[in-house]
Structure to design on (484 residues):
């Protein structure tokens, strides 16, 4: 889809130009949430250009009221430095420097950058800092911080890439510093996305029975089914598909392209109607999709589509109906022993109660979801459920209940450390740290914040390299590397 690829192409061109043009101090990128991760991936890929001489540090702390994010960015920078040090050429980087202190978090971040810049040696020529907050809800603090950092004379070897998602708070800086900044607009054209989705849906509807895979998903292809190749097996009948599915332990519909095509059309129609704010039509198509899955024996898909149906009801303001539907979804999931969907449905119940401002009930519902997640070994879901329980309890002033919920989230994280960093466990640790700090327990708060940073760092560490196979041994076919 051009509406998605064109913005990314602009990012690729802009970051290459930025790397090649050392007189540019800053590249400012505005993008949409839909493309945020892809934009960051293309930006960081520029670190691999053979003409690039600077490491990239991606810092994603948010800026919000009461928390400008600079303390977290300092911690992110130090953690990233230690990880990069393990892979850097000998003599290119000094060991991590002592923790810096200053009157303000922003001043401390400037000192940390200065120490990092001074700890780099040839062939490294400086560092590129990618400031990509997950959100900016305090525009003045964000602009003030950027303006101070970008033109700090003590940071001549530091260059910046700023990525804002769904906001343009930093654009005002371009007016003052146009000679040393460039702006690239990588936002999604919503109308173009909608037009392309409509065209794709119409193409899917017109695909003939037995069409190629490309045509079935709305891509270009012949209007008639291609002739069978010599020796090609005949398509399976429904009875044959059912028998094969029983052998494989899957729903028969998985082996029937026409059936799955019908489901895709319903889901695409619902999603397009929701994008166009036609919620009654979205609900109608999504309800058909759920019932279709039920009729075809796709029980897991039926529950998932019931949860999506509830989200459309919520968007349309039918919160009570959504609450009833989510409770039914949990029963359906329990009936078919779908562990993850049981937890998801219970979390949706909590979300509905929150929207209805039945906050104590919402906290209880999230706690139930957390307990279910622990029982079903759905660790990321358990962490998020307990975290939400704690957040709601804290907002109600129930600090003991909040602390208990946050501790349970961290306990769940400790049971599966490999999943903790990419879950909401770091956020739970920081929320519990805030409670501790509020009650004067500074040491515990510092420890929790350090734990949060450690979990996040572990989530981005590359897996260890496999042990080399001795030259005298032969690699068995089952373990030989394959193309992804």
């Amino acid at each position: 889809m051009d509406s998605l690829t064109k913005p990314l192409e602009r990012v690729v061109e802009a970051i290459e130009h930025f790397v090649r043009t050392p007189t540019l101090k800053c590249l400012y990128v505005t993008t949409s949430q839909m493309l945020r991760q892809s934009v960051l991936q293309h930006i960081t890929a520029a670190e691999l250009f053979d003409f690039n001489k600077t490491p990239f540090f991606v810092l994603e702390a948010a800026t919000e009221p009461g928390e400008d994010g600079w303390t977290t960015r300092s911690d992110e920078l130090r953690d990233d430095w230690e990880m990069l040090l393990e892979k850097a050429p000998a003599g290119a980087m000094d060991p991590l420097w002592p923790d810096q202190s200053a009157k303000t978090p922003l001043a401390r971040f400037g000192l940390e950058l200065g120490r990092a810049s001074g700890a780099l040696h040839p062939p490294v020529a400086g560092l590129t800092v990618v400031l990509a907050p997950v959100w900016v809800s305090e525009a003045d603090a964000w602009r003030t911080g950027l303006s101070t950092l970008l033109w700090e004379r003590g940071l001549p070897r530091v260059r910046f890439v700023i990525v804002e998602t769904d906001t343009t708070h930093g654009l005002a800086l371009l007016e003052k510093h146009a000679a040393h900044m460039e702006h690239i607009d990588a936002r999604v054209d919503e109308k173009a996305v909608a037009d392309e989705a409509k065209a794709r849906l119409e193409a899917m509807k017109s695909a003939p029975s037995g069409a190629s895979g490309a045509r079935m998903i709305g891509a270009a292809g012949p209007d008639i089914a291609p002739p069978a190749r010599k020796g090609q097996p005949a398509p399976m009948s429904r009875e044959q598909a059912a028998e094969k599915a029983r052998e494989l332990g899957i729903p028969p519909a998985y082996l029937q392209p026409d059936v799955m095509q019908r489901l895709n059309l319903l889901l695409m129609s619902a999603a397009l109607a929701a994008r166009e704010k036609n919620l009654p039509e979205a609900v109608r198509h999504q309800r058909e999709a759920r019932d279709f899955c039920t009729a075809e024996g796709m029980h897991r898909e039926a529950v998932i589509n019931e949860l999506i149906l509830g989200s459309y009801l919520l968007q349309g303001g039918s919160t009570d109906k959504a609450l009833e539907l989510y409770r039914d979804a949990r029963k359906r999931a329990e009936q078919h022993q779908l562990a993850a969907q049981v937890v998801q449905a219970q979390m949706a119940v909590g979300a509905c109660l929150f929207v209805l401002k039945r906050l104590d009930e919402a906290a209880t519902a999230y706690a139930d979801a957390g307990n279910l997640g622990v029982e079903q070994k759905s660790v990321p879901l358990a962490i998020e459920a307990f975290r939400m329980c704690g957040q709601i309890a804290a907002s109600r002033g129930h600090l003991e209940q909040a602390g208990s919920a946050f501790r349970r989230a961290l306990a769940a994280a400790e049971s599966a450390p490999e999943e903790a960093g990419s879950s909401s466990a770091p956020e739970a640790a920081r929320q519990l740290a805030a409670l501790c700090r509020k009650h004067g327990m500074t040491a515990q708060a510092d420890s929790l914040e350090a734990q949060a940073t450690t979990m996040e760092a572990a989530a981005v560490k590359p897996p260890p390299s496999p042990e080399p196979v001795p030259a005298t041994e032969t690699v068995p076919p089952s373990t030989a590397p394959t193309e992804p």
Summary: Confidence is low (pLDDT under 50) at residues 460-484. The first strand starts at residue 26 and ends at 31. Residues 2-188 form a domain with the Rossmann fold fold (CATH 3.40.50.300).
